[in-house]
Design goal:
mainly alpha; 3 strands; SET_dom_sf; protein-lysine N-methyltransferase activity; SETD3_SETD6_MTase; methyltransferase
Length: 183
């Protein structure tokens, strides 16, 4: 563990090497992961947990990165929505003006495939939130009530809170999309 703690500033979600202990001569080796190439001057990033991804280790200890895959919501279902249509509802795509949503509603018998996909994505978000042991409000109350605590505990609670807030924002965005969509 000491060698891992020393190298945590050099973490990556796609490590290119790992530590290996040679029992016969009591030597700690740094070995390159299969399929990786490291050239002179390249940064070496360590895989800390055999059989598991670094995501778990870094999530547990509160480390983050701008390319953090945990900042993305992975949906498991087959539901898909049309990206340009979704973006046009928020006026953030590069489509011509006539393609943006109109504020009027179109009467429709039943839900379109797009609306059904939105509902499926929202349901999956609600299921993700239900898997957490606490709500975002409870996490915020815990953080507000803790005067002095370990930084790792605070980081873990903040991470969990921010993950929930991200999922809640996705649900809100899908609500807005569903209200403004024309089909």
């Amino acid at each position: 563990m000491p060698s891992q703690a020393c190298d945590m500033m050099n973490h990556s979600f796609q490590p290119n090497c790992f530590f290996h202990w040679r029992f016969k001569d009591r030597m700690l080796e740094v070995m390159i992961n299969a399929g990786q190439r490291i050239r002179k001057g390249d940064e070496m990033t360590v895989d800390y947990m055999a059989g598991q991804k670094n995501d778990f280790f870094m999530q547990r200890y509160g480390f983050s990165s701008p390319v953090n895959p945990w900042d993305v919501i992975h949906f498991t279902g087959d539901a898909k929505i049309h990206l340009d249509t979704f973006l046009s509802v928020f006026n953030i795509s590069g489509l011509p003006g006539e393609y943006y949503h109109n504020t009027g509603r179109v009467s429709n018998d039943g839900d379109s495939l797009e609306r059904k996909a939105v509902k499926e994505l929202q349901e999956e978000c609600h299921q993700m939130l239900a898997e957490f042991p606490t709500t975002s409000d409870e996490d915020q109350r815990i953080l507000d009530s803790m005067r002095e605590c370990r930084r790792t505990l605070e980081a873990a609670i903040k991470y969990r809170l921010h993950r929930k807030l991200l999922i809640e924002k996705v649900i809100q965005a899908l609500d807005i999309y569903q209200d403004r969509i024309l089909f």
